[in-house]
Amino acid sequence: MPGKRIETGHQDVLHDVQMDYYGKRIATASSDNTIRIIGIGNSQHLANLIGHRGPVWQVAWAHPKFGSMLASCSYDGKVIIWKEEKETEWIQLSVFDDHKASVNSICWAPHESGLSLACGSSDGNISVFSARPDGGWDKSIIEQSHPAGVTSVSWAPTGFTATAGLQKLVSGGCDGTAKVWRRDNGTWRMEDALLHGDWVRDVAWAPNMGLPKSTIASASQDGKVTIWIKPKEGDEWDSKVLDDFEGPVWRVSWSLTGNILAVADSKQNVTLWKEAVDGEWIQV
User: Fold this and answer.
1) Quick one: pLDDT at residue 162?
2) Which domain holds residue 60?
């Protein structure tokens, strides 16, 4: 089946594309400082969101139980929460300017945990904004999580953090580590540091379908993608190098069931991988 080409209308480099929950729209982020909302079925341009003053690195759709809502992060150091008030009419619901440098990554927590957004910045900090019933936001900060800069953040699935009040996320940084963070009753602390040989460009915590096993993928400037597996809470992380891509690896992303991993590398390739019966990872 041939792929479908969608003209975004952006005037500069495209950095991120995210499909909404129902698979009917995409949001795109670009160096032209804008975000576009485009219908997939007819490629109709539904909205052009203007508010950032620098390249927009990432966009992230919130779960639809919270309404039609989108987050964006930018080189300008800001995170903007956009809300669709009426069809194709979007407003800036909130603007967070707490970071002192580029915000490189954003990720919504699993919807069961409420409306919470993690943000990773080049200033070394991770911020977490959690919506209150009164419409305001509570903020918590992981100070200097990666002093040289944070490149990526990803939340643990709720099945792995079933304990009330417990949240976990993983972050990647320019210090060559992926770090696992645990928030229990409002306080964040580092639980584990997973090592690479160079910048960690992206991290992705896999959906676990309610199983106790936890799996994280990390992509690095060192050309390697590593799969980190913890059989159950309290165990140590086991690691397996998926492959050496012989060049920087930019992004990793799991399928909804957590059994297939997509990898985007610096040679403009996107490959799909899955775990075989013998525990080895093979290209699909």
Assistant:
1) 46
2) 1-97
Q: What is the 3-state secondary structure (H, E, C) of the chain?
A: CCCCCCCCCCCCCEEEEEECCCCCEEEEEECCCEEEEEECCCCCEEEEEECCCCCEEEEEECCHHHCCEEEEEECCCCEEEEEEEECCEEEEEEEECCCCCCEEEEEECCHHHCCEEEEEECCCCEEEEEECCCCCEEEEEECCCCCCCEEEEEECCHHHCCCCCEEEEEEEECCCEEEEEEEECCEEEEEEEEECCCCEEEEEECCCCCCCCEEEEEEECCCEEEEEEECCCCCCCEEEEEEECCCCEEEEEECCCCCEEEEEECCCCEEEEEECCCCCEEEC
In terms of domains, do 115 and 192 share one?
yes
Global pTM reads 0.94
User: Which CATH number does the domain housing residue 237 bear?
Assistant: 2.130.10.10
Over residues 85-111, the pLDDT tens digits come to 988 899 999 999 999 999 999 999 999
User: What mean pLDDT, rounded, does the chain reach?
Assistant: 94
Please indicate, yes or no, whether residues 134 and 270 belong to a single structural domain of this protein.
Answer: yes
pLDDT band at 165 (very low <50, low <70, confident <90, very high): low
- Domain count of the chain? 2
Which of 97, 122, 147 is the C-terminal boundary of a domain?
A: 97
